[in-house]
Design brief:
The complex is a heterodimer.
Chain A: H1 3-15, H2 18-27, H3 30-52, H4 84-120, H5 122-137, H6 140-150, H7 155-181, H8 185-192, H9 197-208, H10 210-233, H11 245-254, H12 261-287
Helix pairs in contact in A: 2-12, 3-4, 3-12, 4-5, 4-7, 4-9, 4-10, 4-11, 6-7, 7-10, 8-9, 10-11, 10-12, 11-12
Chain B: H1 2-29, H2 43-52, H3 59-71, H4 86-121, H5 126-140, H6 143-157, H7 174-199, H8 203-210, H9 215-227, H10 229-252, H11 258-268, H12 271-299, H13 301-309
Helix pairs in contact in B: 1-12, 4-5, 4-7, 4-10, 5-7, 6-7, 6-10, 7-9, 7-10, 8-9, 10-11, 10-12, 11-12
Chain lengths: 295, 310
């Protein structure tokens, strides 16, 4: 091989970082891009809903009642004459917020727990992971229903309860990552430089374990949103006057015989979001090549 | 193998104890006593009621007494339906929920397993993409949306099937079973596809082919057993999912099963009922997880030997 080609390769190598590579791979995945697009759109709409919603949130028109899609009400109205598009936009704010905030709670607990267990090793690790095993075996759906009954149906508790359920897998993934990483030379080098475990975990371990965490986070959000919708459907989640997609689906199911659009449109919004998140998660998994590095 | 079973059994005991303890104390710290709503209750009557339900005793005594009751298989009375015990409600609801769960599981295994295996035989062709796209829809379409949609199309517009009930009209079990089973069919399709793809690259499959077996025999006699291990391991978690799924499906189709009792108890704040059902359902779930783990270990020779060597 000539010198020139070696320099070429070196330059090409320099131009692509791990993240750049991943983005190039993700860009070729049409479904993942579609998912990303839908998500960006929905999140943007959710953020600016108060300014762009066609009607006021509590605005009723009892004379109109339930009406199908029309020029004035694109997605129709419910039995109180409330604009369905407005309801879905405000409901989306709650559904997405639950999804993202509860996932953030899970992320924080899970990553910290897994990183500490994996880094400490030995007896600390055994005790911490045994606890995860035990919690894993608990029927959490039933416990969330129980929590909602015992502590009343408030939104903050819903975030915490769902987050408290979803951190377990995150902890397991993080731990196995850390165990692999701490045997690497650069971590050994950091140890011998006298850096504290906290610094090492923050500066060296977590950044290198980001791939699997990002992928799993993307896949956790839809399952959290599903959980919220499930609870709201049963009447144990979001309570009026607030609304969410699950609650709208629940109302829609009650009157679907006469007014099917009240079921179809909220259902479409939820399904489309879940689709997008799952596609994006699968795409990211391929792009970041996570499967190979798992366990 | 026995070592593995004993180990997993030992693990299950603290889990069940933890469930009982956590549920008991959670229910006790819940705001408001169970008889607070009836404002007209005479203080003596209230005292008598509380004595009957042991609410006048210290918390730890109540806890010990409850554990004693449980040891005798007594799950406690219902606050809201005087004279009915949790045991009676479970006896009435469990057979219904078990039947529904069984049909749903059948739907899930047959449809999901077939779709996954078929997809895995020709990866990255239409034969793969079609069932896997359907599986993605199945995963993203929650049962509380699918159920009403199925009712709308098959029950109301087409008028082919009954829209609610259980065992009253012929065919009224079809829609609930499909609604509950579809999500799991989707998961099983993905798991069995992945499992089969991995198994098909193994040496023993090449050996089976080399000795001249036709492809369908290679699949049915050699690949399936290994390829379906992930599915069997998934059955434990799926069982827990089916139970909580029955909350929704039994509510939609008005089926008098355990799931609907539980949701109603949650609505009525019937604390003893919630406590009893939670303990019962949790124990059931833990036991099923145990069973599916043991079954998966038994199907996987590598795991079996790994544990007998320890």
């Amino acid at each position: 091989m000539s010198d020139a080609s070696i320099t070429d390769i070196a330059q090409a190598e320099q131009g692509t970082s791990l993240w750049h590579d991943a983005w190039l791979r993700l860009r070729r995945n049409r479904l993942a891009l579609f998912g990303l697009g839908v998500l960006v759109l929905f999140i943007t709409i959710a953020l600016i809903t108060p300014w762009i919603a066609p009607y006021g949130y509590a605005e009723q028109n009892l004379d109109l009642g339930a009406s199908g899609p029309s020029a004035a009400h694109w997605l129709g109205t419910d039995i109180f004459g409330r604009d369905l598009l407005t309801q879905i936009m405000y409901g989306g704010r709650v559904s997405l917020a639950v999804g993202f905030i509860a996932t953030a709670v899970a992320l924080l607990i899970g990553v910290t727990w897994g990183a500490v267990a994996g880094y400490a090793g030995g007896r600390v690790d055994a005790v911490m992971m045994r606890l995860v095993d035990i919690l894993y075996a608990l029927p959490f759906m039933i416990f969330i229903v129980l929590l909602m009954v015992v502590f009343g149906r408030n939104l903050l508790l819903l975030f915490l309860a769902i987050g408290a359920v979803e951190w377990l897998t995150m902890a397991r993934i993080m731990r196995s990552q850390v165990q692999t990483l701490r045997q690497q030379e650069f971590v050994e080098a950091a140890v011998s430089l006298g850096l504290s475990p906290t610094t090492i975990i923050r500066r060296h371990v977590i950044p290198n374990a980001l791939g699997p965490i990002i992928v799993y986070t993307t896949l956790t959000i839809p399952s959290v949103m599903l959980l919220e919708a499930f609870l709201s459907f049963l009447g144990l989640g979001i309570q009026p006057p607030q609304t969410s997609w699950g609650l709208l689906i629940s109302y829609g199911a009650e009157t679907m015989e006469e007014y099917p659009w009240l079921l179809l449109f909220p259902g479409l919004a939820l399904t489309l979001t879940l689709f997008s998140l799952n596609f994006l998660g699968d795409g990211l998994r391929d792009a970041l090549d996570v499967r190979g590095s798992r366990d | 193998m026995w070592r593995f079973i004993a180990y997993r059994l030992l693990q299950a005991v603290p889990v069940i104890l933890a469930v009982i303890t956590v549920t008991f104390f959670l229910v006790r710290v819940a705001p408001g006593g169970p008889f607070d709503s009836e404002k007209a209750v005479v203080p003596e009557v209230k005292a008598a009621l509380e004595a009957q339900y042991r609410l006048d005793q210290p918390l730890l005594t109540q806890y010990a007494a409850y554990l004693g009751d449980l040891a005798q298989g007594e799950l406690g009375p219902s606050f809201k339906y005087p004279g009915r015990s949790v045991n009676e409600l479970i006896a009435a609801g469990l057979p219904v929920t078990a039947e529904l769960g069984l049909y749903a599981l059948l739907v899930a295994m047959v449809i999901g397993g077939l779709a996954g295996v078929i997809a895995s035989l020709k990866p990255n062709t239409a034969q793969d993409y079609l069932p896997m796209s359907a599986a993605m829809i199945g995963i993203c379409m929650p049962s509380f949306l699918l159920g009403p949609l199925l009712v709308l199309v098959f029950g109301i517009y087409l008028d082919w099937l009954p829209v609610s009930g259980w065992g009253d009209i012929p065919g009224d079990k079809i829609l609930p079973a499909i609604t509950l089973g579809s999500t799991y069919a989707a998961y099983i399709a993905r798991l069995s596809r992945a499992g089969m793809l991995e198994v098909m690259t193994q040496d023993y499959i090449r050996t089976a082919r080399a000795k001249g077996l036709p492809e369908w025999q290679v699949v049915t006699r050699h690949a399936l057993r290994g390829g379906l291990i992930p599915v069997v391991a998934f059955l434990g978690p799926a069982f827990a999912g089916l139970l909580s799924g029955s909350f929704v499906v039994e509510t939609i189709f008005q089926i008098p099963g355990l799931g609907r009792f539980y949701v109603q108890a949650a609505f009525n704040r019937d604390y003893t009922m919630i406590l009893g059902t939670t303990v019962f359902l949790s124990t059931l779930i833990v036991l099923f997880n145990l069973l599916s783990d043991i079954l998966a270990a038994w199907m996987n020779p590598r795991l079996r030997t790994q544990f007998s060597e320890h």
